[in-house]
UniProtKB/TrEMBL annotation:
Short name of one Pfam family: Glutaredoxin
InterPro entries documented for this protein: Glutaredoxin (IPR002109), Thioredoxin-like_sf (IPR036249)
Domain (Glutaredoxin): residue spans on this chain: 2-61
Protein known as: Glutaredoxin domain-containing protein
Lineage: Bacteria, Pseudomonadati, Bacteroidota, Flavobacteriia, Flavobacteriales
Length: 79
């Protein structure tokens, strides 16, 4: 399961949405500004409890603003 934590107004979040959609990958977009439960889930991923977005989780792996190369590497583990 791929989760993308971010906001609609974040250009990097929009980049990752497009990245995932153009590869026909199923993912959940979790808008941390519109939903406090999503914000809390994101805070729980980091010791500093900050809203570090965009963050992508793939199963147990957490990627903070990953490069395309790193993201593709982890996506390939799902396939």
């Amino acid at each position: 399961m791929i989760k993308l934590f971010g906001t609609e107004s974040c250009h990097k979040t929009q980049y990752y949405k497009t990245f995932l959609e153009t590869r026909n990958l199923d993912y959940a977009f979790l808008d941390v500004k519109k939903n406090e439960l999503f914000a809390e889930e994101l805070r729980n991923l980091y010791e500093n409890r900050k809203l570090n977005f965009p963050t992508i989780t793939i199963n147990d792996k957490k990627l903070r603003n990953p490069s395309d190369k790193d993201l593709i590497k982890w996506i390939d583990t799902l396939l």
